């Protein structure tokens, strides 16, 4: 569907108005002319036929070459007329064509016979056609001039709109407290600018609340996690029992994952501040091996055969916590959907691929898998792949997912 701009609509409306007005004017002018001709010629012909009927001897005067625009038919002469004219009932007829000429025809009944009197109006008809051609040419000229003027007028009318568009386009997401209504004076656009200002004000309040929450979350969540990690270190040092050590290891892993998630969330909520979260370089193979070791219990419990071939040269300029949370989400998804199947993790110098032989993804669901809160898993939140996609977009990485229901899924990250 084609997009029609406001400028296009203004010009189109002007063209329609001018065309309709010109057509009505020209049509009215031609109609008035035709009615005047019918009334004038009708009176002339009617008067002449009355004279001829009153004194038939005057009919011979019509043979005068100076009166060759008149044709009079009565009695046997009527047979020389075309059959369609002979069949006409008594009355007045304007612009009857006969022998390539136009006539005004008057038919009257006299003593049971029809009398025909025709007056040649071909010159008037030619003038009418000439007038029609002039009117059509005039309408075309007027339309062209109107379109040109409408184009100039549209540019003038839309100039404030363009200024508003440029002003809004130039706004940076980092700018706060920007108000633009005063820049547009008393023009109608100022009402739109005022509405934009109201929206910007609400956005400013929203961003302030989000920043306050982010700052509070950063402090309030990191502090108890640090305490927990410190307590885990003490417990691990004082309890050599294997069962306790395994529990401590799980607690430490959970704390590490929570800390990674907090850093990722803060990173994505503070996109204008990259310096805090740049980090790196991070060796992807190390993160992958660590995740495989951490999730070994889940992999064994699901009866999954795992194959890992990761290039140790694959490194990225990003915090290890972000890479870990990305691979963790992808690997957990593969484990959850590949019971008694196989998972392959492969990489080269610039990409990493995780393939499984699990249940796969239906073709209808593939376009929406990165949407926030969209999930096909009962009880799922739909945040995992969305978080992975946002991190990839933040760093300019690409993620490609190919899948077929019942045949498995392959996820490829290109760094």
TrEMBL record:
Q: Residue limits of the HAMP domain?
A: 155-208
- Chief location of this protein within or outside the cell: membrane
| Membrane-spanning segments | 12-32, 131-150
* Location of the Histidine kinase domain: 216-415
**Known EC number:** 2.7.13.3
| Any Pfam family | HATPase_c
* UniProt-listed PROSITE patterns: HAMP, HIS_KIN
- Which keywords are on file for this protein? Kinase, Membrane, Phosphoprotein, Transferase, Transmembrane, Transmembrane helix, Two-component regulatory system
Record protein name field: histidine kinase
